[in-house]
Amino acid sequence: MFKIIKDNRLKNTVNTLSFFKRQQRRAQSNSSQDIVSSADVVIIGGGIAGCNTLYQLTKRGVNAVLLERSKLTSGTTWHTAGLVWSLRPCDLEVKLLQDSRTVYSELEKESGDYAGWINNGGLFISRSKVRTQEYMRLHTLGKALGQGSQLLDSHEAQKIFPILDPSVFQMALYAPQDGTIDPAMACAALVKMSKKNGGKVYEDCPVLDIHYSHNMLGNKEVTGVHTDKGFIRTKCVVNCGGAWGPRIARYAGVPALPLVPFKHAYVVCDALPEMRGCPNLRDHDVNLYLKVQGETVSIGGYEGNPHILDQVPDNLQFHLYELDWDVFGVHMTSAATLCPKLGQVGVKSTVCGPESFTPDHKPLLGEDTNVFGLYHNCGYNSAGMMFSAGCGIQMAEWIVTGRPRYNMFTFDVRRFTTAQLSRAHWVRESSHEAYAKNYSIVFPHDESLAGRDASHDALHQELVDDGAVMQARAGWERPAFFIPGEKIRVQQYDWGGNNDYPRNLDQRYEEVLKGDYTFDFSKHHALIGNEALACRNGAALFDMSYYGKFYLTGPDARRTAELAFTADLSKSDDRVVYSLMLNNKGGVEADVTVSILDGGSGQLHEPIFKGRGYYIVASGFSATHVLAHLRKIVQMNQLRANITDVTKQLCILSVQGPNSQRILQRYTDAGLANDAFPVSTHRSIRISKAADAADGKQYTCRALRIGWAGELGWELHVPSSHAIQVTLPPVVCALGPLPGASDGAEKEITFQPALVRADGIKNSGWRALTSLSAEKGYHLWNADLRTDDNPIEANLGFTCRNDGEYIGNEQVTRARKEGVTKKYAYFTLNEKIPLFGQEAIFRNGEVVGYLRRGEYAYYLDKPIGIGYVNNEGDVVTKDYLKDGDYEIEVMGKKYKATVHLKSPFDPTNQRILGNYGELGMDENTHEPHAGQNERAGGSE
Fold it and tell me: What are the residue boundaries of the Aminomethyltransferase C-terminal domain, all occurrences included (predicted)?
């Protein structure tokens, strides 16, 4: 086989180029005409992303112009494989793919021309038990979202793909709605319809610069685009530059866009009659895909040692690189093993071109963090053909209405922090890992190895020394859980031993991560449960320092707060208020805590300012998004308000549990009783370095009586300079295995509350904290609370004041009056099985939704899931929720579930008051009880 391939190598580029040019069909452009002087939107880049964006904008009546420096599709679109799948491991991507297929299938009817869509189905091959489990999860999620698929044994798979060797794999997942799209034909049809709708396309029109100005608040705003054909006035530019996206961003003063170009390849084989009518195929376990077109099959995949391009030349149009067989050869071997006949056919041509990849393997969409009016739509990780049509719909909604219809945060460019974007090595390393792991199993608790150990809080080393196993969120290292007696440090990225990098000698962190490479209970299930139960029965210390922390001050701070926050902030200046931030569609952009302040002493935790100010705390995961949202409110309303980011300067130590007050009282002279320090209040207190040291060194901090665990507790917001001195000493408790722990889980002594000393506190991590929050029933933004949920749907109407002009208030008022067609609910199972989210919800035998979030509730000793129940467009009432018989489908098996309108854990909120007597636990309660959700739901 390889001899035949090598003999064909020298003529591959020429043959491939002519192969694609024979298929190319372009709509007539406006290149010969004078360029327009103004436009509502200017799109830069004539690939599939740009053409889809133009099409969707012009459908909505927008005066849009597309600029292409060469010819349409000439960058990377023309050589793409064009595979379109339907099943992915998250709901957003499944919905976007469904929209893409709808666009492509309907485009032919609209244009009257063949648009290149071929619906030949898709087949996923599994060679292992754990891969089969992943496919069963995909099958279940697809069922919940109306995307049917079939689980096949190897011989059944061979019937629809005859050249398969059934002895090589275990089973397959078949999705009949999958297919391929021809890039040239699709772009031609999109442009034809765009021009019919009034859009304009200019080929051979390179962009030379993007003009912007600074408004009165100092923010950048797009004002126009300079091309070699003239200047176009516009307030909106969409960067659809693909691999050239970072260069376009720099025109607008954006120093870095997290996107790296790679050489990506596939080969086109000689005809094989048996391939006619076969579906496309993915063999994820060996990083292989097969594209079928007539009697021809193309072979491609993703390697661990790809060629990384420092940059892509401007003049790279309809150009291919020479294929490196030392890199690509592994895919030919894999293909011949799976399909022996492929080892007997020759290679017609090779295709090796640039493709762009991002650090988290998600596209870059949405408005830039620092330049108003600059939108990005690029970085598709070699999946632009299948995602860009669905994303084009969302981009058009984003530009026209202000926000997309779907929750696009995982694609939003604002998911990255400024610090992350400033680290070129992080972008490069993480993008390589994204490429190399493109077909890896997506485990719910997997962690990246690339670009790590960059941002720490002041407690980092102390926590590592105490056994913390770190996880990375928004570039910050934070403790996931603790292994007592171990010091497991995150190592520098070793590129998996590829690209001439030696493997790290210390592999302990990677070995720990392997304990979570499962869809069963984690190997660390018992350790995490011990931390959770230490909080429930004693006291736990959580490092929450990675959270975003902002001060809102200035003459118009109050007005800004009234617009931005749903809650009533007219309370006294010692209150901590849980509030939502909504968009103009009523969707939840964030949930935060807002501490109402008067000017302080000038210390970091109590700054000096005039009038009323606000201390805002948001999840670190969404901090950049929250900051951008606040700044846009200020900018759009021309308000005189200052937003100061103090995230790095302040640490958050959260002390939670029945013993928290007794422990904390030993380190402070501040009164901590309910009457002296009520729930949901804050104040400055002094903390001693040592317990009971009346004359010892003391440090001031801001204490907030709130928590995310549902227990008595405080958060200490401490200047980073003395966070170490304020840290309370931990004690290692004798803890034990928990119900549901898988074989191989840590074996320890059964936990008893008495084993926690009165003056001891246990360091605990985020895995325990997210479990505790789900058990209590608190929300988690970007999981069970998102931009496509409104407060009434999410049972958070209590956070929305009845008067005022906050953004989204009209939609909330309407939802209160008319009811909602989906409703937030909790589900508990009696079986000891793990839930991760994305499992299907059945009511009376019919699919009514899927879990957004799943955890093991260690105190209740059962799995708990959170999701929204739908009623086929009708209003969801309490009776509708309560009267149904519910089941949760987990990897193809249905389990009886109990529905709750509020979590059964402490439904009357006695524990946060310190009342640990009669708790009134009612595992079968349906009705919400009085009480307040005292903490922002800290998103991941």
Answer: 822-905
